[in-house]
Amino acid sequence: MSLFKARDWWSTILGDKEEFDQGCLCLANVDNSGNGQDKIIVGSFMGYLRIFSPHPAKTGDGAQAEDLLLEVDLRDPVLQVEVGKFVSGTEMLHLAVLHSRKLCVYSVSGTLGNVEHGNQYQMKLMYEHNLQRTACNMTYGSFGGIKGRDLICIQSMDGMLMVFEQESYAFGRFLPGFLLPGPLAYSSRTDSFITVSSCRQVESYKYQVLAFATDADKRQETEQQKLGSGKRLVVDWTLNIGEQALDICIVSFNQSASSVFVLGERNFFCLKDNGQIRFMKKLDWSPSCFLPYCSVSEGTINTLIANHNNMLHIYQDVTLKWATQLPHIPVAVRVGCLHDLKGVIVTLSDDGHLQCSYLGTDPSLFQAPNVESRELNYDELDVEMKELQKIIKDINKSQGVWPMTEREDDLNVSVVVSPNFDSVSQATDVEVGTDLVPSVTVKVMLQNRVILQKAKLSVYVQPPLELTCDQFTFEFMSIPRVIQCKFRLPLKLICLPGQPSKTASHKITIDTNKSPVSLLSLFPGFASQSDDDQVNVMGFHFLGGARVTLLASKTSQRYRIQSEQFEDLWLITNELILRLQEYFEKQGVKDFACSFSGSMPLQEYFELIDHHFELRINGEKLEELLSERAVQFRAIQRRLLARFKDKTPAPLQHLDTLLDGTYKQVIALADAVEENQGNLFQSFTRLKSATHLVILLIGLWQKLSADQVAILEAAFLPLQEDTQELGWEETVDAAISHLLKTCLSKSSKEQALNLNSQLNIPKDTSQLKKHITLLCDRLAKGGRLCLSTDAAAPQTMVMPGGCTTIPESDLEERSVEQDSTELFTNRRHLTAETPRPEVSPLQGVSE
């Protein structure tokens, strides 16, 4: 058992879906029993009144039937319950119940039972007051210094204090400047009422001032009559606390001093009788209720403060003495004597969890046995330590820091893509131009071996592909872990059969080491004609209008992909390579390989980079201009407001015309920024598609491994979204510069250079294009991509056709910058405007 967890002595749950608040709990000897034991009185907003006297057989027992002394349905919501001397002619304790339109005083008595059912309790109505105004809360005390009886003061929702002298109504007074009711308390030492107004200040009103002030029924008198009568309600003192108060309690040290405790939303105040601050405590959490009580130390006060984190804090003045955890968030807390147990903490939550608890833990009777002591042999310990260190060193050498043993995952994720499209498309935009947009159903299956908590499933596809739902949360991982599962979507989701084109602006050729395969076998369902002599030509039509043509050579082992847009080439190229690999794997061929021997189409790639960068610069200028116009618009508004507030009318000097013109400029600039953002999004999508194609061609050109291709993808595609603060150009430039100065460096001198730690938008793209060209040059000369800098020395390699040697000297490199377009001649390749994840086209990722 934790030392800082409240020990459950007795607990119960009240009713079914009932609600409670801070005034619904009271502890007192309401039946005036001779033993003086407190009873728990609870009222609910459903109108039920319950009285408990807990007698648990052992600690932690729940409520027994005999613990409930009385349960009555009062049929009206119970706002507050209090126990005091409310009946004239006797000093016995009676129960006061406040309803929204009624105040009732009851006597609770018990009759000794003669049978096994125990004692019988009953509640008798002594008197009641029907209220003309809706009540909020009440307080009681010996108003005016009377002895032997308690008076009741009720605060209404419209700010009226109604005083009742037991069975009779005394008077009513309106609080000045009232807006909303606040907590109310009575100080017997100063004979005053203390509340917190809507102005967020503590206010004190003397009872004598209230009694002699103008009656509430005469509130309609003129101000002059009130001044002449001398009966205005004047506040005794005020203190601004700067926040709304949750509750007020008044505690007396002795006969000569008392303190006013105010619980705010973020602070806890202790005030003197005259309103001066004795001390205050800033709270780091949101409190729910509190209860001050006298401390055993002279001159100090203990305070229980509960918060919304299920914690109960005990303060001695401003010093935290104890903190304990509760099973619920209490809205009311009391301390009393129950069943001869003093200092029981009683808490009540808003949904009816009533608990009696105490602090600390039960004593443990277990005693650890004595352990036989023996002398240590340090020589044997040294030998054992050396053996263990050797084992640890050998394991680290063989498998690294983390063991790589295979084990069954606690959670497995698998994805099944439906082979057929949905009969009714679930797409947001059903049509794109003249093309209908289809949709496909993807089933994600989760298999777990152990019970998991709060498992979250996210599904991601690259735009413009969209999901009907991308986030799923299951309320059924102790240690945070991430599991990914990648899946491919059907090509027909964004591509339809089309007429092949004989001419195109951009072309790329893929070489293979096997005989050409019929395109009908690779792309079933995409052929627009069935002639046998036309199976080597196939056309593709993307949703939105782009067209791509695929040709298979009849004599050589080559495939050509061509299109009018460079970025549209990537999707069909990547899909062709994947389907060729799958085709030959089914045939049992293991040595199939693809290669690219043409020129790197860097010029077309650089054009897309320039277009994207130009849109970024344009967006930055538009946002700066919009900010300037917004500042100008607010300045004109302030000028006009000052003119309108001026008591002496003055001409506007065309400020209204200037305001209207500035407003139109702000709207036009906002539309331009929004349009530029849309164009930038499309440009970034095309740039990512072109980047995928460049990485694919570099991998085929230099026969890079999967790890090396992954390094290129990490360098060229670091961002899923492009923003003004962190853009693609500066991020990729920093990544490529890092590769050039580490694994692709020519000497150790380049490796020693430090990169700039800040990423800022560049002035132009010349530096980025130079680094991309240099990266291709280093790879052509045998550079090897790796995460370590050990293998940075260039190796001799046969250059493919179309690539000329790039000089190594600084002078020659400067000439390379000027004529880089001559090194890599124009070739055309494209990614379908449909952007895809970095791994493969039409692929999704679930994690």
TrEMBL record:
Keywords: Coiled coil. Residues 1-363 form the PTHB1 N-terminal domain. It comes from the Eukaryota. GO terms for cellular component: BBSome; membrane. One of its GO terms (biological process) is cilium assembly. Residues 704-779 form the PTHB1 C-terminal helix bundle domain. InterPro entries: PHTB1_N_dom (IPR028073), PTHB1 (IPR026511), PTHB1_CtH_dom (IPR055364), PTHB1_hp_dom (IPR055363), PTHB1_pf_dom (IPR055362). Residues 806-847 are annotated as: Disordered. Residues 599-702 form the PTHB1 hairpin domain. Residues 371-398 form a coiled coil. Transmembrane segments: none annotated. Residues 490-597 form the PTHB1 platform domain. PANTHER family: PARATHYROID HORMONE-RESPONSIVE B1 GENE (PTHR20991), PROTEIN PTHB1 (PTHR20991:SF0). This is Bardet-Biedl syndrome 9. It comes from Macaca nemestrina (Pig-tailed macaque).
